[in-house]
Specification:
Radius of gyration: 28 Å
Largest sheet: none
Number of helices: 27
Strand content: under 5%
Order of helices and strands: HHHHHHHHHHHHHHHHHHHHHHHHHHH
Structural class: mainly alpha
Length: 568
């Protein structure tokens, strides 16, 4: 039956694709546009599905007309990104089909990696792992080390969630060794994941050491985005060490950033361990609201993992001790649903989970309580409780939606209030550059100041080697001076100068506010639109489009005020 259904879907989609290709003619004005331009339009019309669908179609058909396999894969990836959940697997299969035609191992591997990510998002971890392993088979035949270790990292996480902690540890150690000198965020993420694994196998001392290392490395590398996650991990570890107050303090400290990032999974885990800590301190009344927050997140996000099962068991025990039959039944029913989800999603783990309330006992208790409730006519009370919980959930979701809308605006106001980023003042020499003559350091600093004032950082494809040559120095010395006196790596230093210059340009000259991302990227010397967009977001905490939109709003507001004054 399943094969017959898949065949019908394939035929329908194939017919639709054939019809589209033969009825949709690419206008000559768009045919000459490059793929970056079309991709920008796809992103620009995110809120207009009709226009966006035309550019999605244009991207794919242009790639097909040019027989460009890489862009064909990207075309299907665009569809995957903007399609509904029930079509994502269809488009990922199309990516694989085209990639296999190219006979390019990197393309084939990345296509299977995309399919694995789709399954991971559907919480079908076994299928995700299967596709990651296929991706690894193809990518391992290439020389693309970054892609190779990205696959290792994703497989490590699947193994972690399936309970294969020792296998995950081996993979994360490899990732740490590679990413240390290649990708700061990948390096810190791998360290964090390794710490989680050590906690799971009961090596709490090593877990603490790893968390301390992660915080120290983040500080050393000037990348603090992972700090809250290391603190969150250490809070869970302190619970395992029975330091319950420490656990509460660590997790509470980390949750503000985690909630801001909308990381509902770690938010739920944090509430769970705060609740368990209060429970162990015999403060059950304080623990209960945290357990309820976990339930709300699980239901709102349709997310659950094996260790959160205990959350329901503790709530059932609590209401049993209070002789509250209605709420006892309520959470037993929810636990039965959770067990059903876990059995389907975590097949490898289902036999490992310690179930204080096995299914037979739960069903027996459920029937007994239902009989008691029928005798006591508690049906109306249960209905009221359900409505109340739904109302609280709606309030919570509404509040979070409003809060999220304010985040970008706050970052914009912070940026506008502090104005242009000040130059970092020269500091005393330390061990980092002790091997450079002080006169050379001073000369390099003067050259850097002139370089910045004359806006020579706008040159495209500028490297440390090129700049060092113009300074009659070498790249190693130059990078050390920049890192010490500008507190940044060379690439970040150049990117931030370009972004600061563009911000000033957009504020002074409104003509640039109508430029595309590609045009703006070229204006300040970025080699690609994506690199420009990433650099701008890293520097400001908001997309380019939002920043320009807010500038235009302020311009309109100022004009209205001026008109009002003239009128009077």
């Amino acid at each position: 039956m399943l094969k017959k259904y898949l065949f019908i879907v394939f035929v329908c989609l194939g017919s639709q694709s054939f019809a589209q290709e033969h009825t949709f003619k690419i206008p000559d004005t768009l045919l000459s546009k490059d793929f970056d331009y079309i991709f920008d339009r796809i992103e620009e019309f995110g809120s207009d599905s009709t226009k966006q669908s035309l550019y999605l179609k244009l991207f794919l058909l242009k790639a097909k007309s040019e027989k460009n396999f890489e862009e064909m894969v990207n075309g299907y990836k665009n569809y995957l990104h903007y399609s509904s959940d029930n079509l994502k697997l269809v488009y990922s299969d199309s990516m694989i089909f085209v990639a296999r035609q190219s006979k390019n191992n990197s393309l084939i591997g990345s296509a299977y990696l995309s399919k694995g990510i789709v399954y991971y998002g559907r919480k079908e971890h076994k299928k995700a792992l299967d596709n990651y392993l296929i991706a690894n088979d193809y990518i391992s035949r290439t020389t693309d080390n970054y892609l190779i270790y990205k696959v290792k990292y994703t497989i490590g996480h699947i193994k972690y969630y399936l309970g294969f902690y020792y296998e995950a540890i081996a993979l994360f150690r490899e990732c740490i060794a590679y990413f240390e000198n290649e990708d700061v965020r990948g390096y810190l993420n791998s360290i964090h994941s390794l710490g989680l694994c050590y906690n799971r196998i009961g090596n709490f001392g090593l877990c603490s050491d790893i968390n301390k290392k992660g915080l120290a490395e983040g500080k050393r590398l000037s990348e603090r985005a992972m700090d809250s996650y290391f603190i969150h991990s250490e809070g869970i570890n302190q619970y395992s060490l029975k330091n319950y107050r420490e656990a509460i303090n660590h997790i509470n400290y980390s949750l503000s950033v985690i909630k801001e990032k909308e990381d509902f999974a770690n938010e739920a885990v944090g509430y769970f361990y705060i609740g368990k800590s209060y429970w162990q301190l015999n403060e059950q009344e304080v623990a209960l609201p945290y357990f309820k927050k976990v339930v709300n997140i699980i239901e709102a996000k349709n997310y659950v993992r094996p260790d959160l099962r205990e959350n329901y068991e503790l709530m059932i025990n609590y209401y049993k001790s209070k002789d509250n039959l209605s709420l006892q039944l309520y959470y037993i029913q929810k636990l039965l649903k959770v067990d059903n989800i876990l059995d389907r999603r975590y097949q490898y783990l289902s036999n490992k989970i310690h179930k204080e309330y096995d299914t037979k006992k739960l069903l027996h208790d459920k029937r007994s309580i239902e009989n008691l409730l029928n005798k006591r006519k508690y049906n109306d009370l249960i209905l009221g409780l359900v409505i109340g919980l739904l109302f609280i959930s709606l309030l919570f979701l509404s509040y979070r939606n409003i809060r999220n809308k304010r985040i970008y605006r706050q970052k914009y106001e912070e940026l506008m209030s502090k104005g242009k980023t000040p130059r970092v003042e020269a500091k005393q020499m330390n061990n980092i550059i002790a091997d450079i003559n002080q006169d050379k350091v001073k000369l390099l600093l003067r050259q850097l100041e002139k370089f910045e004032k004359e806006n020579k950082f706008l040159e495209k494809d500028l490297t440390s080697v090129k700049l060092a040559a113009t300074f009659d120095s070498n790249a190693k010395y130059l990078s050390k001076v920049i890192y010490h006196y500008r507190e940044k790596k060379f690439v970040d230093y150049i990117n931030d100068l370009k972004v600061d210059y563009l911000i000033s340009l957009l504020q002074k000259d409104k003509l640039y506010r109508n430029y595309t991302n590609k045009a703006l990227a070229e204006e300040v010397g970025f080699s690609s639109t994506q690199r420009f967009a990433n650099a701008f977001f890293t520097r400001t905490g908001m997309p380019v489009s939002f920043f320009i939109q807010e500038l235009k709003k302020e311009e309109t507001t100022n004009l209205d005020k001026t008109d009002g004054v003239n009128f009077h």
